[in-house]
């Protein structure tokens, strides 16, 4: 498996500085700043990028698990809400809420929920974030 990379550069002080973040594939090449992270300013932020990675990984993990069980999902859509909060010693990611809607022909609710929970536990990004409270709401649509 190839190692994937991303780069970030920050220029200036925390409140007035400006950064850029980009991925090896150039799929992401964006600015970020104090306002985009801690307020509602223009640009991206690390938590948003973490959420995108987690949502993508979870959707793929759920699809893979369903496929191994003989179900082909029509759609698996996941939103990851990443909570950054003031904690002792600074800031921390305290909670990630995975909200999944999936269309899976032929599967029952109980089996779907079992696969949804297994995907949360087995997703590589969930494993990497094991110190964070990760909550899942998964629905068949």
Structure description:
The protein has 141 residues and is an alpha+beta fold. 33% of the residues lie in helices and 37% in strands. It contains 4 helices and 6 strands; from the N terminus they run βββααββααβ. It has helices at residues 34-38, 46-68, 109-122, 124-128; strands spanning 6-11, 18-23, 29-33, 75-87, 90-103, 133-140. Strands 1-2-3 form a 3-stranded antiparallel sheet. Strands 4-5-6 form a 3-stranded mixed sheet. Helix 2 crosses helix 3. The model has no long low-confidence stretch (mean pLDDT 97).
Amino- and carboxy-terminal Cα gap: 34 Å
Strand content: 35-45%
DSSP summary: helix tally:
4
- Biggest sheet: strand arrangement: 1-2-3
Report helical residue fraction.
25-40%
Outline type:
elongated
Q: If you average the pLDDT, what whole number results?
A: 97
Low-confidence stretches: none
Helix and strand composition category: alpha+beta
Radius of gyration equals: 17 Å
Largest sheet descriptor = 3 strands, antiparallel
Order of helices and strands: EEEHHEEHHE
Overall strand count: 6
């Amino acid at each position: 498996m190839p190692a994937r990379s991303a780069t970030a550069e920050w220029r200036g002080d925390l409140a007035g500085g400006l950064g850029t973040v980009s991925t090896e594939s150039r799929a992401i090449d964006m600015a970020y700043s104090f306002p985009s992270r801690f307020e509602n300013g223009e640009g991206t932020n690390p938590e948003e990028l973490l959420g995108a990675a987690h949502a993508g990984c979870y959707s793929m993990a759920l699809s893979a698990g369903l496929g191994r069980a003989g179900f082909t999902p029509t759609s698996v859509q996941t939103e990851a809400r990443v909570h950054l909060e003031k904690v002792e010693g600074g800031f921390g990611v305290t909670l990630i809420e995975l909200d999944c809607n999936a269309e899976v022909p032929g599967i029952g609710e109980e089996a779907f929920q079992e696969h949804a929970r297994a995907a949360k536990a087995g997703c590589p990004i969930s494993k990497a974030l094991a110190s964070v409270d990760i909550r899942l709401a998964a629905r068949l649509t």
